[in-house]
């Protein structure tokens, strides 16, 4: 009889992904698994099991919000000039003062969450072709595999931008036994893969996914569609390892052909309906629904409804659906004075009131308690979390045009988002030189996408980290003192120490 030494470590990581709505039917159970006539264990015994797992993949960004949204905002906003940590403690303060270490427990949560999601995607990719159920058509196999590859590409895109060289896991390891230990053991403890190879795998996954994924559904932006693949490809080709601005333009234009455009009212993307005539006056602030879902601007979003709500909203301020809920302690991602100054540099920017809101509170860590600003783009339990939206990709097209010397074309794109925000077109001087248009472009992305997890990665992508971040501490009196200066070693974060301890094949990133 074979002796089993270890059960799948990756299964443990899946359970560590912190999903309160985790569906155990999706993994190892009699419902999803079975044995063939020759007693070989199968992962998905029929089409129903495949569909169950596919739904789990579609819900990954709805259920496990900590690592891909909450902590991503801490990194992208509080580690940049857009926000302070908000709730100072050993896990959050290092992001705002540049003293992040591998012992940070948020990083461990994020690593395990991302790797757990990769394992879930790999499970479908690697085993769907083994399903013998004739009810599962070839077209369905191709579609579901394409969706899983798009998801895997999205996960690895976040990981490679955070940590650089990470383990590239595309297979699903089997049990370690006395007969398989030599073959299987390395799969549990994979070494890092270089950044370029990670990007190439992301590119391959997205291009493969683009062939068979469903078309964009204007009525359901929770799907892993061809448009999601196109948006991610535009973002991937803007990054240095695979930079190809012609392809950024190509996929931005294809998204426009898919029907994507800016919504007329910026606030529709983030607002909620607060009035229900059937509610008594005591509940007049009760949010009953997001103002809009599935707009022509959103490409991929996680949606929340009564009974399955967006729990992280109270981490940022007042949840409008429950005005006093947990509003007794400091909140994360406090908008910085420098960001507020940028919004107020031109009068009438409608995005300001949709991004920052002021309340009276019980603390005065960064501002007076009587007039304290809070992040406002996730304001109720029914808000959708927008992972990808067209304005981001449209502005990346402007970046591509700048690289080609087409400053007027870039300015026209920037003017589209400015006009929607209630601002005038850029002055002619803004497109007179590469330096001027780049400055206007970075400011526009900052204000358009503030509190959406983009700012840090913009600074890294355009080599602006040292210039911007080493200066902000002197001009923003609300920011705590910087611990370490920002250098090119600051562009990626440390591998979590617990992960390093468990996997002897990992090497810590330089500078940590």
Automatic annotation (TrEMBL):
UniProtKB keywords: Cell outer membrane, Membrane, Signal
First and last residue of the signal peptide: 1-16
Phylogenetic classification of the source organism: Bacteria, Pseudomonadati, Bacteroidota, Bacteroidia, Marinilabiliales
Domain RagB/SusD: start-end pairs: 385-512
Protein name in the entry: Starch-binding associating with outer membrane
Residue ranges annotated for the SusD-like N-terminal domain, each copy included: 45-237
Subcellular localization(s) per the UniProt record: Cell outer membrane
GO cellular component: cell outer membrane
Family: Belongs to the SusD family.
Source species: Mariniphaga anaerophila
